Amino acid sequence: MVLQDLGRRLNQAIQSVNGQTTIDEPALDAVLKSVCAALLESDVNVLLVKRCRDRVKQLVLPQLEEMQAKQGQGGDAMQGNKAKQLIHKAIYDELVALVDPGDSAPPAFNPVKGKSQVIMMVGLQGAGKTTTCTKLATHYQRRGLKVALVCADTFRAGAFDQLKQNAVRAKVPFFGSLITLDFLASGNRTLMHNAHMMYSYTETDPVSISLQGVQKFRAERFDVIIVDTSGRHRQESELFDEMVQIQEGIEPDMTVLVLDGAIGQAAQDQARAFKDASNFGAIIVTKLDGHAKGGGAISAVAATNTPIIFIGTGEHLHDLEKFSPQPFISKMLG
Ligand code: GDP
């Protein structure tokens, strides 16, 4: 079920008590059953769904029983409506809690003008890291910050080209090596020669590249330096080793995990593995415009106690929305 459908299904579940004057425990259970089914179909983690159900029930049931007792004594005829509002509010609050680590998490870093700050992007290949780097650069640029991009992905063929194309389109300075490890393995010297002539960066060590790039842009007094790292395909130990080395080298002010919104139940484990290795301080969930269920990525917030700061809503430069838990859930519920 895609994210937009989740809101509709949740609303339907809540509306199912419409017209009932008395809402008792079985009626509440029926609503919660439909809510849980919708959340599970959207890939929200099963333990979180259970926690959500238990908390809503714990909060709402005593109040429903109190209302019923009053009704029995000739109380308010509007009990059904009141109960519905109560259930709606409790579910809304739980959904907000699902995407909001609240005060228990350190606030996500917010770059300011006048000093060089480094943001390092991590995530699996295909999650949308490179695209999001440029979107983020454009976002900060529009806020008047001087932004630059560094491509530390020497693993994937074409990674530098992709970042370069995006950066040129966004008019953001960039730094990287055209020569990737798989290119070197291919033994193709012609491109290497051209690459050397064009860029004079023949470095293939991602740690050196990121350090050089960050040092260069720091010296040029850029406010925000965004470093795109390699993603590879799976959570491999080399990937994590490399990530940790880059992190130790460039000492980023914030590390951001980029998570594919369509990733499903695997998101929790993936986020935890990245958290253990990089202790990222913020999450960006991509591809929430398409057929992404979103629930898996959303569950990563709870798994890592880390806030989502932006969501990706398309392939274009400006398809990046600031994320705030309450407006997000309000919009979803319509
Ligand atoms: P990387 O391997 O993590 O660097 O991923 P890329 O940035 O290359 O993105 C992989 C694919 O996802 C590309 O086709 C992007 O255009 C696409 N993509 C990235 N973010 C979004 C998004 O928010 N919405 C949609 N629809 N596509 C996205």
TrEMBL record:
<dbReference type="GO" id="GO:0030942">
    <property type="term" value="F:endoplasmic reticulum signal peptide binding"/>
</dbReference>
<keyword id="KW-0342">GTP-binding</keyword>
<dbReference type="GO" id="GO:0005786">
    <property type="term" value="C:signal recognition particle, endoplasmic reticulum targeting"/>
</dbReference>
<comment type="similarity">
    <text>Belongs to the GTP-binding SRP family. SRP54 subfamily.</text>
</comment>
<protein>
    <recommendedName>
        <fullName>signal-recognition-particle GTPase</fullName>
        <ecNumber>3.6.5.4</ecNumber>
    </recommendedName>
</protein>
<dbReference type="GO" id="GO:0005829">
    <property type="term" value="C:cytosol"/>
</dbReference>
<dbReference type="GO" id="GO:0005525">
    <property type="term" value="F:GTP binding"/>
</dbReference>
<feature type="domain" description="SRP54-type proteins GTP-binding">
    <location>
        <begin position="307"/>
        <end position="320"/>
    </location>
</feature>
<keyword id="KW-0687">Ribonucleoprotein</keyword>
<dbReference type="GO" id="GO:0006616">
    <property type="term" value="P:SRP-dependent cotranslational protein targeting to membrane, translocation"/>
</dbReference>
<keyword id="KW-0733">Signal recognition particle</keyword>
<keyword id="KW-0547">Nucleotide-binding</keyword>
<keyword id="KW-0378">Hydrolase</keyword>
<keyword id="KW-0694">RNA-binding</keyword>
<dbReference type="GO" id="GO:0003924">
    <property type="term" value="F:GTPase activity"/>
</dbReference>
<dbReference type="GO" id="GO:0008312">
    <property type="term" value="F:7S RNA binding"/>
</dbReference>
